[in-house]
Specification:
The protein is mostly helical. The protein has helices spanning 2-9, 12-46, 79-106, 122-134; strands at residues 57-60, 63-64, 70-72, 75-77. Helix 2 crosses helix 3.
């Protein structure tokens, strides 16, 4: 059983999957940093200085004690963070589209198999049968 597990783990598909997962995690961090640190300030600039991550709908305010400690945190719907996530998804989708498009251009086009030699037409076959029947 241990040998079967070792054979399974050492197959190319499992190793490729592990590498893909690790690279996806690293790429996700890079893309999130790009979106949050570069794209969102640009989007905020063109929307009049709006920072989407701060946008929220407060359901109940935070209760703060006299000494400044928070007794009960605020309850809010953070729709700005959701807008950031949607923009992040759009950018990631576009980047993946561009990567796949570039990858597809580098692949060699598949050569079409040569067409099978065309056999006799139906008329030719019927003519041959007629001629054989006459004999």
């Amino acid at each position: 059983m241990l040998k079967e597990f070792k054979d399974f783990i050492m197959t190319g598909n499992v190793i490729d999957l592990a590498v893909a997962v690790l690279l996806a995690g690293a790429a996700g961090l890079v893309v999130s940093g790009f979106v949050n640190d570069i794209m969102m300030p640009i989007v905020g600039y063109f929307t009049g200085g709006v920072d989407f991550s701060d946008m929220q709908f407060v359901l109940s305010e935070a209760i703060v004690a006299a000494d400044g400690t928070v007794e009960k945190p605020a309850s809010a719907i953070r729709y700005g963070a959701w807008i950031n996530s949607i923009i992040n998804l759009i950018i990631v989708g576009f980047v993946l589209f561009m990567i796949v498009k570039a990858y597809n251009k580098t692949k060699k086009p598949k050569e079409e198999a040569p067409a099978a030699p065309k056999g006799p037409s139906q008329e030719e076959l019927l003519t041959q049968i007629r001629d054989l029947l006459k004999k």
